[in-house]
Design goal:
- By secondary structure, the chain is of the alpha+beta class.
- Helices cover about 35% and strands about 25% of the residues.
- The chain is built from 5 helices and 6 strands.
- The protein has helices at about 45-50, 65-70, 85-100, 105-115, 120-130, and strands at about 10, 20, 25-35, 35-40, 55-60, 80-85.
- It has a 6-stranded antiparallel sheet with strand order 1-2-3-4-6-5, with helices on both faces.
- A hairpin with a 2-residue loop joins β2 and β3 (about 25-35).
- It starts with 9 loop residues before the first strand and ends with a helix.
Length: about 130
């Protein structure tokens, strides 16, 4: 899987986040976790980074589009991460089991399911929680 290196402007933001920008706007946050750096950004910006990889890596909405639409939240500005195709399928299948299609869920139900699905990724839970307004 390709690794991404940032060589542009950055600044240290709240909670130790390293904020990076695209075209002078905050578009992604590199989160130091131990010796790893995790990239969380808007779906619109991270999907641009995956262009040219023929689906091998994909931008993953941290909150599924079906929930964003029902809640009236912007899709392109939703938090996202970059995953391999296999990781994306695995996470999506986990979410479909927790929140089956064909039903409408409250913000609380959605957040509780995402806490389960993302239990190994506390930074994803935090980004999801903030976007859902918790």
């Amino acid at each position: 899987m390709p690794r991404f290196f940032w060589s542009g402007d950055y600044k240290r933001g709240p909670n130790g986040l390293i904020e990076v920008g695209f075209h002078n706007t905050a578009a992604a946050w590199i989160i130091p976790i131990g010796s790893e750096l995790k990239l969380i950004g808007t779906y619109a910006n991270l999907s641009k980074l995956t262009n040219g990889y023929k689906g091998a890596i994909q931008a993953h909405h941290l909150i599924e589009v079906r929930h964003l639409l029902k809640l009236g939240l912007p899709i392109s500005h939703a938090p996202a991460v970059i995953l391999s195709k296999a990781e994306h399928v695995m996470i999506s299948n986990s979410l479909f089991k927790l929140l089956p299609k064909g039903f409408t869920y409250t913000r609380t139900q959605i957040m509780n399911a995402y806490k389960q699905a993302y239990k190994a990724y506390p930074e994803w839970i935090e980004a999801t929680s903030q976007y859902l307004g918790f």
